[in-house]
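Need tokens for this chain, all 301 residues.
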Amino acid sequence: MPFEWVQIPYALLTLFIVVNYGLVLTALIQKIGARVGRRHGIRIYQNYVDLLKNYALRTHITHGVMFYLGPVFRLTGGVGLLLFVPTIFGSEMFSNLSFAGDLILALYFVFFGSLGMALGAGESGHPYSAIGVTRGLSQVTAAELPLALAVFAVSLQYETLSITEIVAAQQGGVTNWTLFTNPLAVAAAMLSFLGSMMRPPFDVVLAPQEIPIGPPTEYHSAYLALMQTNRVIFPVAKVVIYMNLFFGGATGWGEFAVKVFCIYMVSVLVGVVFPRFRVEQSIRWFLVWAVPIGVLSIVIA
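Here are the structure tokens for all 301 residues:
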């Protein structure tokens, strides 16, 4: 579909809807995790309060230009991924800025934010920043490999790199979803999904209970707010990719909300059940289990 300037207001409307949905969804997920641990958890509107507070703050501390470009790159990855993927199938308003071959661009955006944060951490001046970058990029790379294999299998199956055409091929009933026509590709992608969401047992990069350093404490004021904004956009945008490629897409906002919530809950369920992996354990897990399934899905396709 050719680019038209009239699409920009609708793309911004999509971004507004997803940001608000992500704020409520992430608060609800935290609430569910807290209730599993017999705690009350945060208030549903707490993310709004924190976000507005941090955007209102200013700082005079500087660590260099690249350090503060890290959150910008991170947010660019989340926003770019959302805007270049059709959100609602069959809707010209919410097809966003997608075009033929947009699947490859989406995969670039998935990795773009992580690279930006790695560059930002490298200029933080913290003696352990190199360790954090190594841990993060090692696990992210291992987690993205089975996703790339699954995407390759899906593109072979449908003979296209257009996400819109892939969603169109899955219409006509639940049995037409990639979940049923190529279950191995979906299995490999969902195993990758667990690692890319940075929830237990794959949250060793953040290790929130053990490491009182890292982006949440190194960044502050509006820079922290940029990271918080990405935390509500990027997971939803990533789930939209999975929904479109493997679960038939969404033809309305109601279906969108239900499918995104259900796919998101897969990582939440695993996260509240299993303890944390070490870095080498998580990388070995992806290479031993997820990658072979992805290779097999390509052979079948």
